[in-house]
From TrEMBL:
Organism: Aeromicrobium piscarium
Superkingdom per UniProt: Bacteria
Cofactor: Zn(2+)
Pfam families: ADH_N, ADH_zinc_N
Protein name: S-(Hydroxymethyl)mycothiol dehydrogenase
Residue stretches making up the Alcohol dehydrogenase-like N-terminal domain: 30-151
Cleaved signal peptide residues: none
Record-stated family: Belongs to the zinc-containing alcohol dehydrogenase family.
Length: 367
């Protein structure tokens, strides 16, 4: 078996400080672990949350978690992947043994696997890998179950995005929201995650599919990806607009409304933009200081339906990644449209800046 090795990785050393490219030490894979040679990794909003201390205070973080690559080596007892396999990394390696897994709902698994050993700085300081992955690096150490084999002919920069944001968005629609043929859907916030919810809704046969954003560039992309209507909510009241679009049959809004911003005011819009007995899916991630907006309890009761959250699109990587990669390869899922630019490992700060200004769906580091 190989020894530990030193590679380049992008680390957030201190809260709110620019990230740096530094040498990191990758241990040889132990039992149940794999070392993956990273080929691509998308820049997700959550990486910025980590840098800002918005997730926890376990600095230094090894950032990056939307990745594809090739398995380089595996530890003892690993049978599901082998060196040379092309994989998308996931942050839901289900345990098969917790109470969620036991009751047949593994997408809620409460004890998902990550690597047991720690990657470190060269002075031995232990790194916290973002979402247990840490893939803004030439190589990373993960649990073998975090490697999902997919069609090796697929473009890494595109399919790696299934590792987080795109899967979260698609799954929010088809898994959590149970969008099917003929249902009406509205998506509030059409960044990488919301745009993926639009694709998921279109694949499921929903109609109409209403895209809501405050940025016309995002609305344009949403339309290209399958939205039938667009609403700029900085100009019009989105609740009224959604009701008008779907309300011809007397309904009070969309069957499913997906909130992909993560703010109280957009959650409230989503709440009231649902038809009676409709479903609200919160996939945007709020910050700890945010609270549920002031809504009369009688409205919660009276409007009925379901108020759900969607973690990682309630996905099962082994079931969902290969299926979505196949749709991509068949030309039915334009994953390439999500890759706004390919960048180098030293360009993460610039990518955060572009994300902040809404200039990109995804910047993707290519190694
Ligand atoms: N639940 C999960 O598993 C999961 C996974 C990945 C990301 N996320 C979260 O999803 C959210 C979106 O991520 P993203 O990568 O698409 O971010 P993004 O920055 O690319 O997109 C956010 C979009 O929301 C729009 N927006 C902002 N304020 C708005 C408002 N008031 N009304 C309407 N639109 C508004 C922006 O213009 C932008 O298009 C984030 O909170 C992110 O942390 C959740
Ligand atoms: Zn479990
Ligand atoms: Zn993410």
């Amino acid at each position: 078996m190989s020894n530990s090795q030193t590679v380049k990785g992008v680390v957030a050393l201190k809260k709110s400080e620019p990230v740096s490219v530094v040498d990191i030490v990758i241990p040889a894979p132990g039992p149940g672990e794999a070392v993956v040679q990273v080929q691509s990794c998308g820049v997700c909003h959550t990486d910025l949350h980590y840098r800002e201390g918005g997730i926890n205070d376990e600095f230094p973080f090894l950032l990056g978690h939307e990745a594809a690559g090739v398995v380089e080596s595996v530890g003892e007892g690993v049978t599901e992947v082998a060196p040379g396999d092309f994989v998308v990394l996931n942050w839901r390696a289900v345990c098969g043994d917790c109470r969620a897994c036991d009751r047949g709902e593994p997408w809620y698994c409460f004890a998902t696997h990550n690597a047991t050993q720690k990657m470190t700085l060269t002075d031995g300081t232990e790194l916290s890998p973002a979402l247990g992955i840490g893939a803004f690096a030439e190589k990373t150490l993960v649990a073998a179950g975090q490697c999902t084999k997919v069609d090796p002919e697929a473009r890494a920069a595109a399919v790696g995005l299934l590792g987080c944001g795109v899967m979260a968005g698609v799954g929010a629609a088809i898994n959590t929201g149970a969008v099917t043929r003929g249902k009406s859907v509205a998506v509030i916030g059409c960044g990488g995650v919301g745009a993926a919810s639009i694709v998921g809704s279109a694949l499921a046969g929903a109609s109409p599919i209403i895209a809501v954003d405050i940025d016309d560039r995002k609305l344009e992309t949403a339309r290209e990806l399958g939205a039938t209507h667009t609403v700029n909510s900085s100009q019009v009241d989105p609740v009224e607009a959604i009701r008008e679009i779907v309300g011809h049959d007397g309904s009070e809004g969309a069957d499913v409304v997906i909130e992909a911003v993560g703010r109280p005011e957009t959650w409230k819009q989503a709440f009231y933009a649902r038809d009676l007995a409709g479903v609200l899916v919160l996939v945007g991630v709020p910050t700890p200081d945010m609270t549920v907006p002031d809504i009369p309890l009688i409205d919660v009761f009276g409007r009925g339906g379901a108020l759900k959250s969607s973690w990682y699109g309630d996905c099962l990587p082994k079931r969902d990644f290969p299926m979505l990669v196949d749709l991509y390869r068949q030309g039915r899922f334009d994953l390439d449209a999500f890759v706004t630019e390919e960048i180098g490992i030293g360009d993460i700060e610039a990518a955060f800046e572009k994300m902040h200004h809404g200039d990109v769906l995804r910047s993707v580091v290519v190694l």
